[in-house]
Request: fold
Amino acid sequence: MPWNKQEYPVSMKNLEPRVRHKAIEIANALLDDGYEEGRSIAIATAKAEEWDENHPVPERSKSDSTERRHSEPVSSSKSHDNIHVVPTDSGWAIKEEGKSTYLSTFDTKAEAVDKAKELSSKQNIRAIIHNQDGQIASSIKP
Reply:
């Protein structure tokens, strides 16, 4: 079912309108490409949030930009944009985006996701969770 600005997945209701509209656009395109609905929503949400970070609103008023600066902590030691929870031959691992080595490995996906949530919060980075087949399942934004 194609979504629009009035009718969209419940999981998108807390997104900022600009991000939600982009997520709806992406999700509809993924559905058109044959993606399953749940996967389309997860991928679209992650991609729309990423898009929002990389495409700031032009000519934002000073009060808006000041408010945003104070509400979103920035980590000066951030060396990468995302971490990923990925399947391995013997369990699950967390790795930095663009790197082939693992930060840590775990026996279960739940353990890896818990640690990724912790790292995401501490380092103010996104954690992208993959399914067993390697496809993106969800995203955790700090």
Notes: Residues 37-54 form the longest helix (18 residues).
